Amino acid sequence: MTPVFLRATADIEVAFHECDPMGVVWHGNYLRYFEAARNVLFRGVNYDFQDMKECGHVWPVVDCQLRFSYPARYGMKLVCSAELIEWENRVKVRYELRDPKGLRLCKGTTVQVAVDAASGEMLFVSPQSFRDRLLPHIKQGL
């Protein structure tokens, strides 16, 4: 079983502009829901996008995987969970999007790598600034 180092959730309400003419969420918008949950996850360790930038790093997504089970539709209220499952050399986050009754609509993962913002060089180990913010939360078992 894959260890989970941190968890967070984001509440999502499906907007009209996120849907196709049939009222079903366009597949690309699921990544926006994942990002909302990932933002909550990283804010919880004081390492959101602004913090990353101030520390001199950017974290592009280099891989993503989604698996759809049921469609999300206009007006649905959803919960997207994000779980940090890798962090030492890259960041891998696992996601689930569920409806209010707990039915899983979509699951997936994203992988991000640290890049030095000044040089554009990819780092093969997560930067110390990230580790310093993350480790106290992992030790607390959040």
Tell me what the structure shows.
By secondary structure, this protein is α+β, with helices and mostly antiparallel strands. Helices cover 23% and strands 33% of the residues. The strands form two sheets. It has a five-stranded antiparallel beta sheet, with helices on one face. The radius of gyration is 16 Å and the shape is elongated.
Distance between the termini: 18 Å
CATH topology: Thiol Ester Dehydrase, Chain A
Average predicted local confidence, pLDDT: 94
Q: Can you tell me the residue ranges where pLDDT is under 50 for at least 5 consecutive residues?
A: none
What is the approximate shape?
A: elongated
CATH architecture: Roll
What string gives the helices and strands in order? EHHEEEEEEH
> Strand fraction band?
25-35%
The fourth-level CATH homologous superfamily is: Hotdog Thioesterase
What's the layout of helices and strands?
Elements: E1 6-13, H1 30-43, H2 49-54, E2 57-58, E3 61-68, E4 77-86, E5 91-98, E6 104-112, E7 115-116, H3 128-140
Antiparallel strand pairs: 1-4, 2-7, 3-6, 4-5, 5-6
